[in-house]
Amino acid sequence: MLILPWQDQLKRDEGNPMTMIHIAGYRFIALDDLVLLKQNLSAQCSLLALKGTILLSHEGININLAGNVENIGCFHKTLKEDTRFATMRFHESNLDALPFKRLKIKIKNEIITFRQKEVSPLQGRAESVSPVTLKKW
Fold first, then answer.
1. In this structure, is residue 49 part of a structural domain?
2. pLDDT single digits (tens) 11-47
3. pLDDT tens digits, one per residue of 67-90
4. pTM to 2 decimals?
5. CATH code, 61
6. Quick one: 114 exposed, middle or buried, by C-beta within 10 A (0-12, 13-18, 19+)?
7. Roughly how many angstroms between the first and final C-alpha of the chain, as a whole number?
8. HEC string of the chain?
C-alpha cells in the first residue's frame, strides 16, 4: 500500500460546502509507465476522498477533480513534487456540493482529442494569430 507523508492530515469532511473546491488542468508532456502512474494517482485520490476524472496518455495528463480544500492542497503538493507536473497550473472554483459521484482514472490515446494523426501537442504550439487577423478570417 502507498503510504503518503501527509496521511495524518487528511480531512474526510465531504459535506461542508464551504470547504469544497473543483480543480481543472492539463499538461502536454511525454509520459511512460501509465499503468503505474494510474495506480499511484488512484491510491492518492482515494486516500484524499477526491472525486472526478483524470485522463492519462503518452502525450500528457488532464485532471478534473473536486474535494475538500485541504485534501486538494495535499494533492497539489504531491503532484508538484513530481518534476513532470511541477509547473502544472489549475483553474479553481468553490463548490456548494461535489459535482462528481466517483473517481475515474483512464488511460487514453489522447488527453484532448484532435483526431489528426499528423498533429502532436508534444511538438509545441502553433503560431499565434492576432485578434485583428482572426477577425479578417
1. yes
2. 444 445 458 999 999 999 999 999 999 999 999 999 9
3. 999 999 999 999 999 999 999 999
4. 0.75
5. 3.30.70.100
6. exposed
7. 55
8. CCCCCCHHHCCCCCCCHHHEEEEEEEEECCCCCHHHHHHHHHHHHHHCCCEEEEEEECCEEEEEEEEEHHHHHHHHHHHHHCCCCCCCCCEEEECCCCCCCCEEEEECCCCCCCCCCCCCHHHCCCCCCCHHHHHHC
Provide the residue count of the chain: 137
Determine, yes or no, domain membership for 128. no
Structure-block grid coordinates of residue 2: 502507498
C-alpha closest to that of 3 among 36, 42, 38, 47 = 47
Residue 92 cell numbers, joined: 479553481
